[in-house]
Amino acid sequence: MKTIQFRGEPALPAIGQGTWYMGENAALRRQEVSALQAGLDLGLQLIDTAEMYAEGGAEEVVGEALRGRRHQAWLVSKVYPWNAGEVDAIEACERSLQRLETDYLDLYLLHWRGNVPLEETIHAMETLQQQGKIRHWGVSNFDTDDLQELWSEPSGENCTTNQVLYHLASRGIEYDLLAACQRRDMPIMAYCPLAQAGRLRQSLFEDPHLHQIAQQKGISVAQLLLAWVIRRPGVVAIPKASSQQHVAENAAALDLHLSVEELAIIDRAFPAPQHKTGLDVV
User: Fold this and answer.
1) DSSP summary character for residue 91
2) pLDDT per residue over 194-244, tens digit each?
């Protein structure tokens, strides 16, 4: 099984559980809670959420799913950039903790870069860490230049991870960002690894090369795409799965191996970038 390791932490499965769009429809709440719990049962410990998702609704779903089993999860949430100030971030984190029904986060991320100076955000994160409210902190949607600036700030080197869009049809991070993070022993968290909510999803799921490989391996195209994202060390995928069946499919992708020949076919169909491109965001 492929695993991921954050600094000073035990290894985690390289596929976690995303929660974007959860908590938006009360009629689906029971199904969403059950899906997250099924993922925990299958060992998918990392659960990623954010105060942005359904304006806290997703965090409430996660909190319900973790009742009595918080110890089984490695919990990640994210703060809005306008809440990332020295005081505001403390208050935002406390609101997230309340919704999540826990007294600490394993990882707290700046959701994307805003107008608050990085120095302020870093200080807030370090304070939260000292208070025991978070164990690690990191960023999301930071490109290489943003990270270089972050690392130049006092305590900026304590950033644990960078969560970015990454899937087969969006490979821009492979040009320089992925290597920059790997040199810092900083895992990449790949959101929307199945191109969820993106315009490229159809081209992936209808591609004949991917269909042929998936059929030969007896797996779904979604499982193939997940196996591709986590093929490299230092990358964890966080697909959203709102049904127990999809969670089980995601978990099974942890054990898939892609051959050199299969990877070559995939590369020809969806080539790696040959130049720097702007960071894709959805």
Assistant:
1) H
2) 998 667 899 999 999 999 999 999 999 999 999 999 999 999 999 998 899
d(CA 149, CA 165): 20
Both structure tokens of 127: 């304070």
Q: Which of 15, 4, 32 is nearest to 241 (CA)?
A: 32
Q: How far apart are CA 102 and CA 235, in angstroms?
A: 27
* Strand positions, DSSP E, the chain: 3-4, 12-13, 17-18, 46-48, 74-79, 107-110, 137-140, 162-165, 188-191, 235-237
Nearest-angstrom CA–CA distance, 101 and 67 = 8
Give every CB contact of residue 217 below 8 A, 6+ residues apart in sequence: 224, 256
Burial of 198: CB neighbours in 10 Å, binned 0-12, 13-18, 19+? middle
Please report how the helices 29-41 and 57-65 are oriented relative to each other, as an axis angle in degrees rounded to 10: 50
In 205-272, beta strands by DSSP E: 235-237
The 8-class DSSP code of residue 277 comes to -
CB 129 within 8 A of CB 135: yes
138 has which bridge partners? 109
* CB distance 165 to 189 below 8 Å: no
Model confidence, pTM: 0.97
182 in helix, strand or coil? helix
Query: Could you tell me the CA-to-CA distances from 277 to 114, 126, 156, 180, 259 in Å, in that order?
Result: 20, 32, 25, 15, 28
CB neighbour list of residue 128: distance below 8 Å, 6 or more residues apart: 89, 90, 93, 108, 134, 137
